[in-house]
Amino acid sequence: MDGRHARGAHTRRVTLARAVDIATVDGLEGLTLGRLAAELQLSKSGIFAHFGSKEELQLATISFAEEVFTEHVLRPAFQAPRGKPRLLTLFERWMDFSRARVFAGGCFFSTVMAEFDAREGKVRDVVVRWRTTWSELLTRLIEEAVEEGHLTPGIDVSQLVFELTAFGRAANHDSLLTRDDSHYDRALTALRARLGESD
Q1: What is the CA radius of gyration of the chain?
Q2: Where is the HTH tetR-type domain (predicted)?
Q3: Which class for 155: exposed (0-12), middle (13-18), buried (19 or more C-beta within 10 A)?
Q4: Is pTM, for the whole model, over 0.90?
Q5: Model pLDDT for residues 37-59, shown as the tens digit of each residue
């Protein structure tokens, strides 16, 4: 039983890793059990046993993307000192993550937010929750930077959250479209300048 469980867990992770790559290029709607089975040379019934439906597969893919993003971006960022250094490290790690194409199509969440912004349903609800959590995280880090004396008290936190997110999304989008990674450097320059104005 332990051996079967280990093989099943491995198959699930391999499947989700491929699903994330597909989703960043073709969207979550581009995911099908049949496509994954064919690309990974697995049985469709075996894939179905893990996910059961396309929606379950989409939700599991989002969850897996969150795990990978946490490992590559969030955990390292929280090793940085509290305040502006942590905020900058988070942004830098995010840009490095997208630039390295850890996911084939760049930032997974930028892709799925654009795909589901005008839709309804469980998948959109999960995407919206992730977007809310991300904004709350940035808000917390900016407020900590104010507490540490790194940013000016009274700064418009919501505006800075908007700008930071916009810089990152623009860099991801423009780099993918033009095949030019200099957009990530421009986003970092823009954020450093913005934070410098608040010193």
Answers
A1: 19
A2: 9-69
A3: middle
A4: no
A5: 898 888 888 888 888 888 999 99
pLDDT at 199 over 60: no
Residues 6+ apart with CB under 8 A from 199: 150, 151, 152
Alpha carbon distance 124, 156 (integer Å): 28
The CATH number of 2-196 is 1.10.357.10
Determine contact, residues 69/93, Cβ cutoff 8 Å: no
Q: Following DSSP, what letter does each residue of the chain receive, concatenated?
A: -HHHHHHHHHHHHHHHHHHHHHHHHH-GGG--HHHHHHHHT--HHHHHHHH-SHHHHHHHHHHHHHHHHIIIIIHHHTTSPTTHHHHHHHHHHHHHHHHTTSSTTS-HHHHHHHHHTT--SHHHHHHHHHHHHHHHHHHHHHHHHHHTTSS-TT--HHHHHHHHHHHHHHHHHHHHHHT-THHHHHHHHHHHHHHHTT-
* Residue 26 in tokens: 């073709």
